Structures are given as C-alpha cells and as structure tokens.
C-alpha cells in the first residue's frame, strides 16, 4: 500500500503540528500499550489519524467522547473493536473530518479505508472462526411457548409465566442481550409443569366439554330489578342491545362466566349496528375479563364491525375460570348514554322509560351468544400420538408388554424431538433413569413419562441452541429455519431432510423455506418479526390523552396493528420492493381507518374488515406513515422529531444513532403547540457535538411532524391560528432538499438500496440471533447484488439471507 501523503508541501504550521502530535501520540500509546496490549496501530493508519484526527480526538479535547490517542488498537477487545469500526464508518461516510476542517485527498481516504477494512475484517473473521457469530442463544419466551405447544400438542398461554426478554438493539432473539439465571430456570420449570399437566391430563382423561347458548333473558336484567350500577345490555323484543355508555365494564354479561380456564368459541348471532356512523358501521370490542373493579384488566379478544345487515360473529378466545364476555360499542367519538337526572333521583336504571335508539345512541344488537369449549391444537388422540405413539389403550389405561423397552423408546423419541437432533446413549441415560425409577415407584406410565419429559424440557439442550463454531450441520440448519418461520421446533419433514443431509443443498433449503412460509404457522413470523422490527409490541405502552384525542380508541389501535401486519404480509406474498416501506401504490383500510385518516375518496365497504385498495403515492402510502408507526413513535400527548427520526434512521435506513451525551438536556415539546419543536431543537443543532447526529435524525423527524401522536394529518401543532405552524421541510443527509413528507418519500423510494441493506441486516439479525458484524458486511453486499434484479423484493432478500454464509454458520 502506498503511504498516504508521501510528500508534504512546505508549511510551517502543518509540520509543527505533525511533529508535536506524533510525539504526543508516541508518548500516549507507549504508555497505554505498556499496561494494555502490545498491539500497535499500523504506521500508515497512524499517520493519517495524526494529521487529520488527533487535533479534535486527543486526551485533552476528546470531541464526542472519543480520544483516539488513548484508544489501543486491540481488536480482540469487543469495545475497542467497536470503537475502531466507528472510526472507519465515520470516515467512510465522509462525516469525519468535519466539512469545515482540512480533508484528506481522495487517494488518502481510499488507501486508509482499504487498509483498515482489511485489518478489521481479518480480526472479525478470526473471532467468528474461534467463537462463532452467535454466542449461547436460548429460546425466547415466545419461542418456548410455541415449542412446548407444538411438542405436546396443546395450546395454552405460557409466555406470561416467563420473564420478559431483553431485546438487544432490536430483537429478542439476539443472544448477547439474553440472560439465563436461576430465576429464569425456575420460571421455565413452572411453565413446563403447567404444559405437561395439561397434556398428560388430556391424554389420560380426555377433554372437558362445555356448551351453552344464552338468549336475551339470560344475558340481560329487567330495568325494574336493577339499580343504577347495572352494566349489562338491554333486552328489547327478544334481542340484546349493548349501548355506548359512559361507564366502566359496560356490556358485561355475568351469565357468561366460564367454569374452567381454556379456549372458548364465542358465537354471536345476527349482529347488527344500531345508529351506525358516517362510515356505515358501529365498531365494538369483545373483551374478556373478570368484570370486577378489584380486577380491572380486560383483554380485547376481537373487534366487531356491525352494519345494518345481520351477520354472525365468531371468535376463539382464551378465558380464565370465572371470566366473562363483554361486548360494547367502542368508538371514541360515540355519543355516550348517561343516566337521566330525574331517574337518578329515583335510583332508576339508565335506560328506564327511554328509547335510546330514537335518541341517536349507538349500540350493538344481537339475538344470542354461544360459548363452546374448543381445543385448537387437537384432541386427546393427537396428544397421545405426540406423547405415547404406538401405545395401545384398554379402558383408558395403557397396555404395556415390556414397560422398560417402551419407556426407553418413548423417552428417546421425545428427546430427539425436543433436542432437535439425534441423542446419544450417554446423553439419554439421566432422563431414562428418572423415568424408569418413577415407574418402579408408581407403576404408572403417565407419571414415569412426566418425570422424564420434565427433565428433558429443563435441559440446556432444549432451552438453548447447541451449535459448535463454524458451519452449521443439517440439524442446526433445520432449527434455524423453523425458528425463523414458525418460532418453534422443526417438523418431521424438516427433520427427515436433515437426517438425509440435504439441507446444505441450496435448492432444497429454499424449497423447505417456501414450504414453511406457506404454512399457517408462518403467521408467527409475521407477528413476531414485525412486533420486534417495527416495535408493534409497544403500541399499548402509552395512552393518548383522551381529552385531546377522543377519537382514539381500542378499535382504532387494533385496526392499526392489523393494517401494518397485512401490509408486511402482502410485501412478502408478492415479493414487493423495499421501496414500499416509504412509498406504495396500495393500502389496507377498514372503515374505521378510512375515517381516522380522512381518506374520503377511498372505496372501503362497511362490514368487510381490512381491504386492499389503490392509494396512489400520497402522503399516507407506504409503511412509515401508517397509524401504528406514528403512534409508537409518539408519547400520547406530543410528537418529537428526535424520537421519530431515530426510529426511521435505525429501523428503516440502517443508521446507528448513538444516545445523546449525558450533559445534554432532554427537549420537552410544548404541549400547547405554541412553540415549534424545530425552534426548540436549534440549540441542539448549534452544538457541534450534537449536530452530527441531528443531521441524520432531524430530516425524517421533521417530515413526519405533519402527523400528530395518533397518526392524523395536521397543519398546526394545535388549533389553526392559535399555535405554531408545522414546517415539515428539511435536507437529507446526502444534501437533497424536501418540502414535506411526500418529497422525502419520493427521494428515498429512489434510494432503495439503502432500504434493502438495512432490511437485509434486520432479517439476518432476527434469524441468526446475532447483530450484523463487521465480517457480515461483505455478505450483505452480496445479498444486495443477488436481489438487485428483483428490485430488492422483500422475499428475495429473505431467501438470499437464508442461503448466505452468515445464516449457515454459528
């Protein structure tokens, strides 16, 4: 490599600075290396840093908290390696040296980057070869739940029993962010016990049956027999009416309390909307809960869109013992029924002597409600085939000719499935001994298997992915595929391909990936990946101020989440380009979203739920301006271009945004809207240590200021002519001016390689359990080259990821 700047023009200032800096650097590094690491920075790199960087990044100034003169070139240290990657990236992107400082020549920059890149790449590849990309990944609580359910043939909620997962930078699957303590193990053991209890009880005793149909008389109470505190629906001419009321637990139906925890199919017959709004529907929630003030939490099982045409409504919901069903109109803009003052004096009910329909109140009307116990994962025979295959039963009891042989066969088979690979005799022995000892004590096959299976489910081979560094074997590839698409263990077909050693064949691998993606279980991928990538799982973390955003309600929030998931699924189903993240020609809307977004020209039919419609490349098209994203990136009262800008930068554009320095105060937007947030940010942008990050953060953040905290379009922060006007203009990091969100979108729709690089990195991180490393960068670039011909379709990117070297290595 040619040494940078071999001949310097005679310049006293340059030479004096250079000599002094080199002497200082020599002193600092010799001191540091004496106690840290004898590794020396290559002289050619040191020369460039001394000439262009040490002035601002030495032990006396340390701009941005970076002192390069005291940063050892020890690439075996994780933090130091990260620091040198940071140096590489800032120089490569032209962010350093600052534009107002002397710049290296093009040749100097290229030579510096080429040498540093080669050194960093070699160091990272060496670490990957020794330790692997992924360090000790365990099942997330969602993966643990699905794995137990699929392994045992049951479906009961288990993830709520386990500690919440840390999400690393973005994903819960990232191994470096995961923890595994004694507390975790005890919780996993409790979940395993509950799952085995359910499976063994049903395998031995069968299913509990429950079926009840409730008519109007059973679900309601006569007004003359109840006081003001009655919260249930009203019976009118044999039909049930649940009105929009200003009271908690409105719509409770006490008769629907269930005797045992389980899944119930709720069928509501001939549902109609009374006094529908301008969109032609009355929207309601169907909630499950105790219906008591000392246990106020209720869960939205589904949303109901009721029109003037009678239609049956059916949903399956998990109900705890003693919980009931509640149905109530739930649009925030509904006129709410309040008790008449005269009726209150007489302690009469709110609808006593009134015709609420004529008064214009909204209601959900229906004929009857049916509750039926169901078992979504299958009946007893399916569980027996999972836990006791090949065992004959007589009078409900297993028939065993040779108990020891049968127990060994069953334990071996279960361990093979749970560990997701063949099990050696030595690995099997402890579990087999436990099961046989228990059988000797009880003479009960179910008890013996429970003991052995329980131990297997608490084994590290079940809880974690046991993979040596280097290329994955076929069984590990099978697990990586199944946990990507199903968040669960491989099925028999995938295990058979692994046993045959065929999964390293690229075409076989892609065929299996397509098969898994086409299966109903792939819904788990679309839920789990989008929940973590887009942070949809945080949409309920804040509640919009009901006084300012009365139109926001549970129906709207659920509709927003469904809109985003349907949109992402469509991208994968049709292999559409990543440019749709910022700009698309279609949307998914229901009547509730249409009204909220004020998309009056959109053709959306009431009663048909989400519908794909052409939208044109307008301000609402694409992913990033959907209500769910705008709600997640606001705090319920105000918006912040910093929060939204960081979100767009990190999750859509692939730009790492470091946290602000500790001495920088937070910006509190003016809730009155009297002062523009742009004006408040100026003090941050004026500080050079803040300006570099704000160049990345502010442009998309400003563009999205045209949307309020619940995703509505706005021109002012508050009421027109009484608050600051929105200014959504800005300049992108690459110098492109834009006037509003439309122009910002149009610019990045043309920069879709940026979007593709970021998305490929997200897919790789989620699917492997490791953040993108420096040595993954060439892999990402190869993925982009492969998928460019497909306009960077999201499915093409996913397929390129799973056939990449990084995916196929630990």
In short:
This protein is an alpha+beta fold. It has 27 helices and 17 strands.
Notes on the protein architecture:
- With 810 residues, this protein is of the alpha+beta class.
- Among the domains are: 12-131, no CATH class; 212-374, Jelly Rolls; 542-749, no CATH class.
- Helices cover 42% and strands 11% of the residues.
- It has 27 helices and 17 strands.
- The strands form five sheets. Strands 1, 2, 3, 5, 8, 10 and 11 form a seven-stranded antiparallel β-sheet that branches.
- The longest helix has 26 residues, at 106-131.
- It is flat, with a radius of gyration of 31 Å.
- Residues 408-467 form the DUF1595 domain.
- Residues 734-807 form the DUF1585 domain.
- Residues 472-598 form the DUF1592 domain.
- Pfam families: PSCyt3, PSD2, PSD3, PSD4, PSD5.
- Keywords: Signal.
Show unreliable segments.
1-38
Q: How many strand units?
A: 17
Number of helical elements: 27
Rg, please? 31 Å
Q: Please, what is the oligomeric state? A: single chain
Mean pLDDT: 88
What structural class is derived from the secondary structure elements?
A: alpha+beta
**Helix proportion:** 40-55%
State the end-to-end CA separation: 34 Å
Approximate strand percentage: 5-15%
Biggest β-sheet description: 7 strands, antiparallel
Shape: flat
Domain DUF1592: 472-598
Signal peptide: 1-36
Domain DUF1587: 137-200
Domain DUF1595: 408-467
Write a concise keyword list for the protein shown above.
alpha+beta, 27 helices, seven-stranded antiparallel β-sheet, signal, four-stranded antiparallel β-sheet, 810 residues, Cytochrome c, Jelly Rolls, single chain, flat, disordered N terminus
